[in-house]
C-alpha cells in the first residue's frame, strides 16, 4: 500500500534514530555493499523491529522483504539507512522526507570533503533535512550502533557480540571506530551508544554528546573530535556532562597546522586554536587523551563507575623492576603515589618477608608465588591507609603460560578486597601485548577494570584521579548557591558593579562607533566592575603636573593621553619613577617632545600623573577573541613569565571563582604569588575576584567588546588588592 506523508515536528534526537522500531535500507543488494552490511548488523544484534530493503530490482534481500520505494513499505519506518552514492543519497533523502520518515543515516562520501561541488550537494542535503525537520547522521559516516536497543543502523561490520554497556562513544571518523569496537569486544567494554557523525550536515558530535549527558544508560562519554562544527553547542554539551557528574573523555586532533589542514580536507570542519581548546577542556573537566590506546584505557577505567576517594593511589605487584618503572611514570605524568603512614609501614613489615622493603609502589616479592596470603594481606593493609584513595594491582599477562595463574590469583584477591573496602581497585599490565583471555574473564566477572600497558595505564590513572578531584570541587562549589543557582549566578550577585558608570562609558563610546578607549576611559569601565586603578590626575601643563604630584605624593608616573597612541611606551610617552618637582618638569616636557617627533599629528588630550605603586607583583589580565569560541579570558604573570615562558592561563566566560583560582594555580610561576624568599604573599583572592569581574564585563558587553589588555595588573600584598596600572579596551560599533 502507499503511505501518506506525515509531518515530523521534532528536531531533537529521539528513539526514531537511536532505537528505531523499524528500519528501511535504501540501496540494499544481495551482492553486498553497505546496505547488505547494515542488514546483517541488525540481524546479528537481534534487532526486534521491522527491517525493509528498498531496491526496485529485488523482492527480497538477505531474508528481508524488499520494496521498490519508501512509499511502498507496509508501514511508515522510523529510520532510513541510505546506502547510495552522493547524488542518489540526496534523492533518497527527498523521498524519505516526502513520506515523513523522521530519521536517516547517510553513509556516502563525496560531499563537502571533496570541494566546491560536494559542498553544494551537502548544502542541498542539509536543506532537505531541515525543511522536513529530519534527524540525519552523516554523510560520509557509518551511522549509529546501539547495543542496548539491539539496533545497528551502521554501515561497517561490527564485532559479534557487541556488548551493551555504559559508555557512549561519538566519533567524527568512521574508520577509527573499528579500532574501538574491536578492542572493546576483546576487553569486554560495552557501549550504550556508538555514533560516527562524518560531515555533520545536520546533526553534529556535540548534539550526541548533549544527548548522552542526560541519557540514563550512559555513565561515561567518549569522543574522537577533529573540529567543532558549532563551538557553543559543544560548550553546552561539556557543561551538561559536568552538571551530570559524568566524565567526558576526548581525543581531539588538530594540535598542529598540518593536522588542522587534514581535518579541513577530511570533514570540512575547522579545528580551531588548540590552546583555547585545552583551556575549555580544563574549565569543564573534560579529559583530553593523546591516542586511541589512552582513550580506551581511560574509558575502561572510568566505566568501572567508582572514583578514588582521595587523590593518592597505591600500586602493588610482585616485581621490583616494574615498581620502579611505574614510580618513574607516575612522577612524569602527575599521578600522586603518597608515602605510606607509619602504621601502614609497620603492618607491611609484619606481613612481608624480611628482605622486602615497604614502599609505594609496593613490591610484595616473589614470595607471593609460594604464599598467596601475603599479597591478600598487603592489599588489605594498603586499603586501610587513609592517604590512599584507590589501589592498582600490577600484573604481567603472558599468553597461554602456566605463569599466568599467579596473576589471575592476584586479580581475584583484588576483587575480594574491593568487596571489603569502599576504595576502588583495578588491575594493570606492564606491556601492551596480548592479554591472557582467562585473566580478562576473571576481571570481567569481578567487575575489576583491567588496563593494558604501563605508560598508558598510568596516564589513565592520572586522568581518573584528576577527574575525581574536579568533580569533588565542582560539587562543593555548586553547593555554595541557593537551590537552582549555578556558581556563576551566585558570583554575579556578589560582584561589585557600578552600572551607571559603565553605562556612561557605553554612551560615550557608542557615539563614536568603533573605538579604542583611552587609558582613562578604559580604567573607568574596569572600575565600574570593581577593578580599580591607581590614584591619578590628567593635566595639560607642567605646572599642573607638579601640583597633581604634590597632592598624590611622589614617586609618580607620567603618561601621554591620546586617542591616537595605543602603545604609549613605544612613542616615548611614559616616564616612571619621577621623585621630585624638578624631575617632573623635565619628564613632562620630554614626553611632549617625544610624541610630537614620533607621532606627528596625534591628538594630545593631556598627560596623566599617576601614583607609582611599588609593592606588588606584575601580572596581566585580558580578553581576546578566538575565531571559533569568541571571547577568551587570559591571566598571567608579567615580565619574563609572559614574554619568554608564555606562562598564561585561559578560560572562556562565564568564569567562576573556582575557575579563576584554577587559572592562578596552573601558572608555572604561581609560586611567585606565594611570597618566596621572604616577600609577602600576594593578594590571590583579589586576583580571583578581578578575573571573575572581567568575565562579567565580557558577559555584559557581548559583541561590543573586541579586546581588553590590563598590563600591568599590579598584585599587591595580601589584603591590599590589585591595581590596574595600565589598560586598553577595544570596542566594536553597536549592532
Descriptive report:
It is a single chain. With 735 residues, the protein is α/β, with parallel strands linked by helices. A seven-stranded mixed sheet has the order 3-4-2-1-5-6-7, sandwiched between helices. The protein has a seven-stranded mixed sheet with strand order 9-8-11-10-12-13-14, sandwiched between helices. The radius of gyration is 31 Å and the shape is flat.
- The proportion of strand residues reads 15-25%
The CATH architecture of the largest domain comes to 3-Layer(aba) Sandwich
By DSSP, the count of extended strands is 30
What name is given to the CATH topology of the largest domain? Rossmann fold
Keywords:
Rossmann fold, 735 residues, 39% helix, disordered N terminus, 24 helices, alpha/beta, 30 strands
SSE layout:
Layout: H1 15-18, E1 22-26, H2 34-45, E2 50-54, E3 60-61, E4 64-67, E5 79-82, H3 86-99, E6 103-106, H4 116-131, E7 135-137, E8 143-146, E9 151-154, E10 164-171, H5 176-187, E11 191-196, H6 205-213, E12 220-225, H7 231-244, E13 248-252, H8 257-267, H9 274-284, E14 287-289, H10 292-302, E15 313-317, H11 320-333, H12 342-351, E16 362-363, H13 373-383, E17 390-395, H14 404-420, E18 425-429, H15 437-445, E19 450-451, H16 454-478, H17 487-494, H18 499-510, E20 515-517, H19 519-528, E21 536-539, H20 542-552, E22 556-561, E23 574-578, H21 581-598, E24 606-611, E25 617-626, E26 630-637, H22 640-643, E27 648-651, H23 657-665, H24 684-701, E28 705-715, E29 722-724, E30 727-731
Parallel strand pairs: 1-2, 1-5, 2-4, 5-6, 6-7, 10-11, 10-12, 12-13, 13-14, 15-16, 15-17, 17-18, 18-19
Antiparallel strand pairs: 3-4, 8-9, 8-11, 20-30, 21-24, 22-23, 22-24, 25-26, 25-28, 26-27, 28-29, 28-30
Helix pairs in contact: 3-4, 6-7, 10-16, 11-16, 12-13, 13-14, 14-15, 18-19, 20-21, 23-24
Amino acid at each position: 500500500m502507499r503511505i501518506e506523508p506525515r509531518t515530523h515536528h521534532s528536531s531533537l534526537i529521539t528513539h526514531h534514530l537511536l532505537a528505531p522500531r523499524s528500519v528501511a535500507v535504501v540501496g540494499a543488494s544481495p551482492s553486498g555493499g553497505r546496505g547488505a552490511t547494515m542488514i546483517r548488523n541488525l540481524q546479528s544484534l537481534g534487532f526486534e523491529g521491522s527491517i525493509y530493503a528498498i531496491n526496485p530490482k529485488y523482492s527480497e534481500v538477505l531474508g528481508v522483504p524488499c520494496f521498490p520505494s519508501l512509499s511502498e513499505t507496509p508501514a511508515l519506518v522510523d529510520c532510513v539507512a541510505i546506502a547510495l552514492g552522493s547524488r542518489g543519497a540526496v534523492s533518497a533523502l527527498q523521498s524519505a522526507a516526502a513520506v515523513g520518515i523522521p530519521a536517516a543515516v547517510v553513509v556516502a562520501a563525496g560531499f563537502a570533503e571533496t570541494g566546491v561541488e560536494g559542498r553544494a550537494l551537502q548544502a542541498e542535503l542539509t536543506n532537505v533535512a531541515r525543511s522536513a525537520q529530519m534527524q540525519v547522521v552523516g554523510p560520509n559516516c557509518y551511522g549509529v550502533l546501539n547495543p542496548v536497543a539491539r539496533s545497528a543502523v551502521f554501515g561497517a561490520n561490527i564485532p559479534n557480540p557487541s556488548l551493551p554497556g555504559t559508555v557512549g562513544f561519538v566519533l567524527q571518523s568512521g574508520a577509527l571506530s573499528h579500532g574501538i569496537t574491536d578492542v572493546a569486544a576483546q576487553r569486554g567494554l560495552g557501549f550504550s551508544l556508538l555514533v560516527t557523525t562524518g560531515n555533520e550536515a545536520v546533526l553534529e558530535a556535540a548534539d550526541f554528546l548533549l544527548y548522552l549527558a542526560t541519557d540514563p544508560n550512559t555513565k561515561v562519554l567518549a569522543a574522537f573530535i577533529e573540529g567543532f562544527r558549532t563551538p557553543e553547542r559543544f560548550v553546552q554539551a561539556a557543561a551538561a556532562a559536568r552538571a551530570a557528574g559524568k566524565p567526558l573523555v576526548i581525543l581531539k586532533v588538530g594540535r598542529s597546522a598540518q593536522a588542522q589542514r587534514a581535518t579541513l580536507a577530511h570533514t570540512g570542519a575547522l579545528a580551531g586554536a588548540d590552546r583555547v581548546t585545552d583551556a575549555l577542556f580544563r574549565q569543564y573537566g573534560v579529559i583530553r587523551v593523546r591516542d586511541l590506546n589512552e582513550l580506551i584505557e581511560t574509558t575502561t577505567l572510568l566505566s568501572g563507575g567508582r572514583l578514588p576517594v582521595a587523590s593518592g593511589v597505591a600500586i602493588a605487584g610482585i616485581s621490583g623492576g616494574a615498581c620502579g618503572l611505574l614510580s618513574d611514570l607516575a612522577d612524569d605524568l602527575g599521578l600522586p603515589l603518597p608515602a605510606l603512614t607509619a602504621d601502614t609501614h609497620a603492618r607491611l613489615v609484619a606481613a612481608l618477608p624480611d628482605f622486602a622493603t615497604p614502599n609505594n609502589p609496593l613490591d610484595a616479592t616473589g614470595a607471593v608465588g609460594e604464599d598467596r596470603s601475603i599479597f591478600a594481606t598487603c592489599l588489605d593493609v594498603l586499603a586501610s591507609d587513609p592517604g590512599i584513595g584507590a589501589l592498582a594491582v600490577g600484573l604481567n599477562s603472558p599468553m597461554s603460560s602456566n605463569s599466568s595463574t599467579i596473576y589471575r590469583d592476584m586479580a581475584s584477591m583484588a576483587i575480594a578486597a574491593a568487596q571489603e573496602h569502599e576504595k576502588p581497585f583495578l588491575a594493570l599490565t606492564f606491556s601492551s601485548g596480548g592479554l591472557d583471555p582467562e585473566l580478562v574473564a576473571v576481571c570481567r566477572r569481578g567487575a575489576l577494570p583491567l588496563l593494558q600497558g604501563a605508560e598508558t595505564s598510568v596516564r589513565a590513572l592520572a586522568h581518573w584521579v584528576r577527574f575525581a578531584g574536579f568533580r569533588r570541587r565542582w560539587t562543593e562549589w555548586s553547593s555554595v548557591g541557593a537551590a537552582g543557582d549555578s556558581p556563576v549566578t551566585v558570583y554575579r550577585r556578589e560582584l561589585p558593579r557600578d552600572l551607571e558608570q559603565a553605562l556612561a562609558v557605553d554612551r560615550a563610546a557608542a557615539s563614536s562607533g568603533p573605538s579604542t578607549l583611552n587609558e582613562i576611559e578604559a580604567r573607568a569601565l574596569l572600575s565600574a566592575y570593581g577593578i580599580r586603578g591607581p590614584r591619578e590626575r590628567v593635566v595639560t601643563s607642567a605646572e599642573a603636573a607638579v601640583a597633581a604630584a604634590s597632592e598624590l605624593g611622589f614617586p609618580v608616573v607620567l603618561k601621554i593621553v591620546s586617542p591616537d597612541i595605543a602603545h604609549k611606551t613605544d612613542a616615548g610617552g611614559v616616564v616612571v619613577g619621577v621623585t621630585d618637582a624638578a624631575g617632573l618638569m623635565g619628564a613632562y616636557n620630554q614626553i611632549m617632545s617625544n610624541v610630537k617627533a614620533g607621532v606627528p599629528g596625534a591628538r594630545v588630550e593631556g598627560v596623566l600623573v599617576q601614583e607609582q605603586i611599588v609593592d606588588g607583583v606584575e601580572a596581566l589580565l585580558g580578553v581576546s577573541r578566538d575565531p571559533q569560541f569568541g571571547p577568551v579570558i587570559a591571566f598571567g604573570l608579567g615580565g619574563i613569565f609572559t614574554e619568554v615562558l608564555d606562562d598564561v592561563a585561559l578560560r572562556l566566560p562565564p568564569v567562576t571563582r573556582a575557575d579563576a583560582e584554577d587559572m592562578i594555580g596552573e601558572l608555572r610561576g604561581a609560586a611567585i604569588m606565594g611570597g618566596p624568599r621572604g616577600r609577602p604573599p600576594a593578594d590571590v583572592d583579589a586576583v580571583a575576584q578581578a578575573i571573575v569581574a572581567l568575565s562579567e564585563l565580557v558577559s555584559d558587553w557581548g559583541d561590543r567588546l573586541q579586546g581588553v589588555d590590563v598590563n600591568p595588573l599590579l598584585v599587591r600584598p595580601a589584603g591590599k588588592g590589585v591595581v590596574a596600572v595600565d589598560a586598553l579596551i577595544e570596542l566594536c560599533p553597536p549592532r
